[in-house]
Amino acid sequence: MQQHCDNNKKESENEQKSMNSTRADKRITDTFKLSIGILGSGLIGKEFVLQLCDQTDVLEKKCEIVFIANSRKEIRFKEPFRPSEHARELLETMFDGTNDLAIWAKNLYEGLGLELDIVKCATKKERQSIVLQDLEEFKNKSAAYCLIDLTASEEVADMYHVFLALGIHVVSANKKVNSGDSARDQKCRGLSSSSWSTAHWLYEATIGAGLPIISTIRNFSASGDEIFEIKGVLSGTMSYLFNTYDGTKPFSEVVKQAKDLGFTEPDAREDLNGKDVARKVVIAAREAGWLDATIEKTMIESLVPESLRSCKKEEFEEKFASEVDEQILQRFTEAKERGNVLRFCGSANLKTKELKVELMEFPKAHAFASLSGSQNVIEIESSRYNARVSSTLTISGPGAGSRVTAGGVLSDVAKLIARLGDVEVLI
What we know:
Elements: H1 2-26, E1 34-39, H2 43-54, E2 63-69, E3 73-81, H3 85-97, H4 101-112, E4 116-120, H5 124-141, E5 144-149, H6 154-157, H7 160-165, E6 169-172, H8 176-179, H9 182-193, E7 201-202, H10 213-222, E8 227-233, H11 236-244, H12 251-260, H13 269-272, H14 275-287, E9 298-300, H15 313-337, E10 340-349, E11 354-363, E12 375-382, E13 393-398, H16 402-423
Parallel strand pairs: 1-2, 1-5, 5-6, 6-7, 9-11
Antiparallel strand pairs: 2-3, 3-4, 8-10, 8-12, 10-11, 12-13
Helix pairs in contact: 2-3, 2-16, 3-4, 11-12
């Protein structure tokens, strides 16, 4: 019997040694590289690359870029491009000049000696095909591969489940998946969070740019706290409009001013209709556990009159003042007489199952009233954080802009590298 026990002990020890050996072989070492493909070469994409260059002591040693793409072209590096302080000066000059990836490629070749190819795509189907080809190719060469989605593309969103199923990590500022079709969202969540999954999906920048909103909501759940309501000023554009508007000049002029400053979408209706805020409300609700929250279930107060919702942009801009200025002034005046201010807010009440986006009044002492510029603010009420116990939890800060959004994306990349190091398994 003793001999039997000894044999079992030896077998167990041998098995443990084997497991340790396997782990050691698969442990991410100092030579580990995260290969990154970037979709989106706009302001956020440019800023992300520059910030990656700035982090030479941390992220640059772990990251390499294998392609940068937009809806028309792709720069595909024959050897991975490792951002550095040396490259930053050239990149900054490039980014100031143009969004044309062909010109970027020429400058990268002449300035840094990088060998690369330019791939052109005329259709969305070609774009999808090229991206999938890249993913397959680079996944075979790299221990870990991450796609950075800085677009607002529905077509890219439709491919997330394919990326994740292939073991490709996704870091996203694109709100279309986690605010869109709930079945698609849950499928992606399952692929990235199951015990058998091999890929991570991170998306802190989908709400509040670089503010730690997603991670805070997750921390509530992880600690066993029950969230009752999430409410906030969640649009940098709408925040700017109502922080700036004081009744001395027409609301339409403030909108035009915001557009000239680059705060609004090219068609300001995309901000004024409240759908961007609604998407963020849905994302927050789903993170808090209400997985079937949808935009369709959200009551949205649009600041775009029904008569102007489907007309051409030029007609909207021409008629907006006459249809809206007087109404906004009246609501502003009435709020002011009550000692209140106007703020465009979104809320998710998890107890009553209500999702709302609306123009609301707040007293001047309220945290939502003290915002400036394009700041965002979010208030979370829970079993531990509420007025009966002490107060709600409030997070505020810059909620828009390429720098803070790129910073939020970069933070997710840093989290991803840390996770890969912790699990000790190569993908």
